[in-house]
Amino acid sequence: MVKAIIAPSMLSSDFANLASEAQRMLNCGADWLHMDIMDGHFVPNLTLGAPVIESLRKHTKAYMDCHLMVTNPLDYVEPLGKAGASGFTFHVEASRDNWQELVQRIKSKGMKPGVSLKPGTPIEEVYPLLDGENSVELVLVMTVEPGFGGQKFMPEMMDKVRTLRKKYPLLDIEVDGGLGPSTIEAASSAGANCVVAGSSVFGAPDPAQVISLMRNSVEE
Ligand code: DX5
Ligand code: ZN
C-alpha cells in the first residue's frame, strides 16, 4: 500500500506569519507543506517564489511540496533547488516540449519530480511522463481550476485518479482543491494517497482533527 501524506496548502495560511503557521500545521500532524507557486500568467494569481521558500527553509526541515503553476517551469528549477524545495511539481500544460529536460534537471537538484494536470486535461497526457528513465514520481490531479483556494471539489476528476491507480499501484497520486472532511472519502476510495487541503484545514477550529480524519480515510 502507498503511504498516506497530508499536505496543508500554505496558500490558506497567514503569509505574514508563514514560519509559525508552518510549525502549527506540523504540530497538528501534517506530513508535507504544500507551497503554491503562481506566476500571474499560467494562472490569474501571484503568490510566492524561491526567496520565500529559502526564508521558510531556515525555520523548518519539513518536506516542501512545491506546486508550480507557472508558464516556464524550467526557469524555477535552479532557484528552487538552491532555496531548499523538496518536491517540484510542474504542469503538463506548461511543459509539453521540454518535460524530459525538466525532469532530468529537477532530479539533478535532488528534488522529487511531479507532474500536475488541470481539470480539462485528459489523464492520458501524463502517461509518457511515467515511463522510462526520466519519469516523474508523483502525479497531482487538480480537483479545481488552479489559481485560488476555497473552490468546490470536482468529483468527476476521480475517474482520472481511479484510472491512474489501476495502472500504477505504487505511484504517489496527489489531489488538490476542495479537499476536506466531506470530500476525502471520494478521493481516498478512488486511490489518492497524497492530499492537499487549504481552507478546510486552516479554517477549522481544530486542524489536527481534520488532518487525522483525512489520514484515516486514506489508510482505511
Ligand atoms: C489552487 C492550489 C491549491 C489550493 C487548495 O490552485 O493549487 O493548493 O490552495 O486550496 P483549497 O483546499 O482551499 O481548495
Ligand atoms: Zn496546489
From TrEMBL:
Enzyme active site: 36, 176
Cofactor note: Binds 1 divalent metal cation per subunit.
GO BP terms: carbohydrate metabolic process; pentose-phosphate shunt, non-oxidative branch
Top-rank lineage group of the source organism: Eukaryota
Keyword match Manganese: yes
Catalytic activity: D-ribulose 5-phosphate = D-xylulose 5-phosphate
Pfam family, one: Ribul_P_3_epim
Needed cofactors: Zn(2+); Co(2+); Fe(2+); a divalent metal cation
Enzyme Commission number, as recorded: 5.1.3.1
A GO CC annotation given for this chain: cytosol
Residues engaged in binding a divalent metal cation: 34, 36, 67, 176
Keyword annotations from UniProtKB, A to Z: Carbohydrate metabolism, Cobalt, Isomerase, Manganese, Metal-binding, Zinc
Classification via InterPro entries: Aldolase_TIM (IPR013785), Ribul_P_3_epim (IPR026019), Ribul_P_3_epim-like (IPR000056), RibuloseP-bd_barrel (IPR011060)
One Gene Ontology MF term: D-ribulose-phosphate 3-epimerase activity
Residues binding substrate: 9, 67, 147-150, 178, 198-199
PANTHER family, sorted: RIBULOSE-5-PHOSPHATE-3-EPIMERASE
UniProt record similarity statement: Belongs to the ribulose-phosphate 3-epimerase family.
Name this protein carries in UniProt: Ribulose-phosphate 3-epimerase
Gene coding for it: LOC107809939
